[in-house]
Amino acid sequence: MSQWEGVMKNHAKSFYLASLFFPKALLPRVKALYALCRWLDDAVDEAPDEQTARTVLEKISNDLHAKESKIQVNIMYRQNKLDAGYIDDLIQGAKEDLGHVRIKDQEALVQYSYKVAGTVGLAMFDLMAVHPLQARANAVDLGIAMQITNICRDVKEDLARNRIYVPIDLLNHYQISEKDFIEGFYRREQLACCIRELLQLADHYYASAQQAFQAIPWRSRGAIIIASQLYRGIGRKLLRNGADPMRGRTYLTTSEKALVVLRSLGAWLWSAFRHPPLNHDPKLHKGLEYWKQLRSFNQ
Fold first, then answer.
1. How many CA atoms lie within 13 A of 184 on its CB side?
2. In the predicted model, what is the mean pLDDT of residues 159-164?
């Protein structure tokens, strides 16, 4: 097992399972991309202090933009001619995780989710050589959908780090103040209403991403369908459990994952006979106008 494969297998079990369906030639690059993203996450979550985290993030960024990279995952990134701007945006998102985090509203949530996950969707788009280019907008949406799912799943863990990704205005709408949320003075059903709304929002982005699956090369398409359905399955299980993230992290059991994979394989095979029109709802990218132009997903 390669070092990069170990990183993915230990930290992203659902995505690791889906990655097994990528073409053999593409798989090492997918694993290396995940390792780079994981390194950025760990630079923030495992650093002893904020300044150390910033130093590591700057080191990664400077090496990526240097005349010649020395960090192995950055070397892979450049060899594949991936846009360094994706990592710039990702690092900006990682910096927003430093200190205490508060997300003001849905637009701020979508902006954050673009930075830390939509960028990965763009990098994967390029690695898989997807055409047409209009599908880049949908690739961003898959990253956003997965990130919102993660946010709903990890509310309890994030709160322990003084991070609140559930938009404050959404909490307020259900009569939960920031102070009461931190101190636990609210009814679980109030928070469940927030989580249901966020998972419904994630579903809009999953549906948008799904419209572009047909544009993904056949051998890579299955892995993306499986990854999408595994993450979506976590959100659906959270809903079945009362949309209560404070009960602990929601995860799919081995049998549940197997069932999702089987259904996804069926969808993969069926996709060979379907040719839905490619379109994108511009309302999904409200607030992303700056990055749409800069990273060329404005189709």
1. 5
2. 96
